[in-house]
């Protein structure tokens, strides 16, 4: 049995995209070795030690016919699963001091920070609890800024499609809080008094936001918050907890917990989710629920430096980042609520290319990331199928165009069997398009034009990359890249060399399927 371990070289993010196809291949003879590799790749970041890398993702596949495992590490802006041991935890005094510096010399206003904090809470909730399954949210808000975060989160959750309710028994008579209340009232968000709250919160709500106390909590809870916290404690007690109980989401601190010592008696709230703000407080070390997030993506370098903060990197444009691993899921239980509009025959264009253009435009308008990403499946003369993601680089009535090195595995497959299958999957639109047909090379002129339209680093990366071939190590690739950079430093146009190509065209479209996924009425074959 042969295992193939593939990994990408640690290079600058700029070059990363350009060198993504470059891999080095190591052969392993034993399954046990491959299992070891698999385990070590569970934390693939360790293979990418340079701090320039934000996060990484690993993939595995098993080719049944050749019984060959492949493992790999690809860079992506994925959710950073951050090691709870390696991040900073704040003492109560430090948290208060950071607040003061932010709102003093660093020029932030409390309104701003609260808005960002509440948005972080709402996005963390939306990441774990989908509004179609967890729609009714009760935000229990205390008298301080933690309560303000709850009010802001409730507003954002409304706009995310949830049905928020608010319990805000001790309103703070300051313009900021009055405005937050007015904003919620303008959305017709119901405000419930403590007396209005149902005895059993589990019947009426799917999510309870605990925004009662944050890092300024001290002593033991006083009325009316003592009873409210008791309700939350009962809900999180495994003996008293009803079978279907709402998820408890604590903002910054589980209310009632000591800010530094946590739930030392063990009688406190046991939230399912904790959203720490700015940096986790010491008590968060005792959090044992399944979802710990960090929010408050506003910490400027002076704070990081002064308090020597080790904070996880936020992925992409996200307002929150998960700390620790997500809980294991039962894959068979993963399901979406299949709600799609119907796709009726009279709605589709007679010409499949027009239909494709229409759906592609929709994908662009919806702001989907890389709507031109498609799975390309090929099979060589041995009939072994393989798929990989590539980018569509153009389409017209002649076909769909993408680029590849003519020495890659896909190109070898196509030279032996000039047919391919493309699949676009636009998840947010519940749509996919399948395209199947013959493949031909495009002209050299077109190929060359594309090559020279790429950024210079991509051109060099493409030449350096001898796809799907065995190379000794990462350093080799660095060296090849650097040598080529030096070689072409005086040249305006980098020559295309012999492995020019990078382009193939699907010239027929007799097999073009427009499929509405997650719907009963779905497939049109044009
Ligand atoms: N920099 C950031 O990360 C930001 C965090 N934000 C959020 O703000 C809170 C901290 O807010 P703060 O207003 O300082 O404090 P609290 O929300 O924890 O609550 C203070 C009020 O609670 C009362 N309190 C304290 N202890 C008790 C108790 N045992 N029983 C009843 N009431 C209590 C306190 O009253 P006192 O009379 O005791 O003073 C206050 O009225 C932080 O955790 C984040 O959630 C910002 O939103 C943005 C910046
Ligand atoms: K709280």
TrEMBL record:
Cofactor(s) named in the record: FMN; K(+)
Binding site for K(+): 146, 210, 255
Catalysis: reaction(s): (6R)-NADPHX = (6S)-NADPHX; (6R)-NADHX = (6S)-NADHX
Pathways involved: Cofactor metabolism; pyridoxal 5'-phosphate salvage; pyridoxal 5'-phosphate from pyridoxine 5'-phosphate: step 1/1; Cofactor metabolism; pyridoxal 5'-phosphate salvage; pyridoxal 5'-phosphate from pyridoxamine 5'-phosphate: step 1/1
Binding site for (6S)-NADPHX: 145-149, 214-220, 252
Xref: Gene3D superfamilies: Electron Transport, Fmn-binding Protein, Chain A, YjeF N-terminal domain
Job of this protein: Catalyzes the epimerization of the S- and R-forms of NAD(P)HX, a damaged form of NAD(P)H that is a result of enzymatic or heat-dependent hydration. This is a prerequisite for the S-specific NAD(P)H-hydrate dehydratase to allow the repair of both epimers of NAD(P)HX.
HAMAP family: NADHX_epimerase
Family: Belongs to the NnrE/AIBP family.
Name assigned to this protein: NAD(P)H-hydrate epimerase
Gene source species: Oldenlandia corymbosa var. corymbosa
């Amino acid at each position: 049995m042969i295992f193939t371990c593939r990994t990408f070289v640690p290079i600058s993010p700029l070059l990363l995209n350009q060198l993504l196809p470059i891999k080095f291949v190591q052969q392993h003879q034993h399954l046990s070795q491959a299992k070891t590799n698999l385990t070590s790749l569970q934390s693939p970041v360790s293979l990418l030690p340079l701090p320039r890398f934000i996060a990484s993702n690993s993939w595995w596949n098993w080719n049944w016919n050749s019984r060959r495992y492949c493992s790999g590490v690809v860079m992506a802006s994925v959710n950073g699963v951050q090691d709870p041991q390696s991040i900073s935890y704040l003492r109560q005094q430090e948290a208060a001091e950071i607040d003061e510096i932010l709102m003093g010399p660093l020029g932030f206003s409390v309104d701003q920070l609260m808005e960002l904090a509440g948005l972080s809470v709402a996005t963390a909730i939306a990441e774990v609890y989908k509004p179609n399954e967890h729609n009714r949210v009760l935000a229990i808000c205390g008298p301080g800024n933690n309560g303000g975060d709850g009010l802001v989160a409730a507003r954002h959750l409304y706009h995310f499609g949830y049905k928020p309710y608010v319990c805000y028994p001790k309103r703070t008579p300051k313009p900021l809080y009055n405005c937050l209340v007015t904003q919620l009232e303008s959305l017709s968000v119901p405000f419930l008094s403590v007396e209005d709250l149902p005895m059993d919160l589990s019947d009426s709500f799917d999510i309870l936001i605990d925004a009662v106390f944050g890092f300024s909590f001290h002593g033991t809870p006083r009325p009316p918050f003592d009873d409210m916290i008791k309700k939350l404690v009962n809900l999180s007690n495994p003996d008293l907890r009803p079978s279907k109980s709402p998820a408890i989401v604590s903002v910054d601190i589980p209310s009632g917990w000591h800010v530094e010592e946590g739930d030392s008696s063990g009688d406190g709230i046991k939230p399912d989710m904790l959203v720490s703000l700015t940096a986790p407080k010491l008590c968060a070390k005792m959090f044992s629920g399944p979802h710990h997030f960090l929010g408050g993506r506003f910490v400027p370098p002076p704070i990081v430096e002064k308090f020597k903060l080790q904070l996880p990197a936020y992925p992409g444009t996200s307002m929150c980042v998960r700390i620790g691993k997500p809980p294991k899921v039962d894959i068979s239980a993963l399901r979406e609520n299949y709600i799609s509009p119907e796709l009726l025959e009279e709605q589709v264009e007679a010409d499949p290319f027009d239909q494709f253009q229409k759906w592609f435009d929709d994908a662009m308008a919806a702001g989907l990331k890389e709507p031109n990403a498609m799975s390309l499946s090929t099979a060589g003369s041995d009939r072994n199928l393989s798929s990989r993601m590539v980018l569509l680089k153009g389409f017209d009535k002649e076909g769909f165009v993408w680029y590849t090195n003519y020495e890659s595995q896909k190109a070898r497959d196509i030279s032996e069997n000039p047919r391919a299958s493309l699949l676009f999957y636009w998840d947010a639109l519940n749509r996919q398009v399948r395209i199947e047909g013959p493949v031909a090379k495009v002209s050299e002129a077109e190929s060359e034009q594309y090559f020279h339209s790429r950024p210079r680093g991509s051109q060099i990366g493409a030449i350096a990359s001898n796809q799907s071939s065995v190379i000794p190590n990462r350093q080799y690739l660095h060296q090849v890249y650097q040598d080529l950079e030096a070689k072409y430093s005086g040249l305006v146009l980098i020559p295309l060399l012999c492995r020019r190509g990078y382009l193939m065209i699907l010239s027929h479209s007799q097999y073009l399927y427009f499929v509405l996924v997650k719907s009963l009425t779905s497939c049109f074959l044009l």
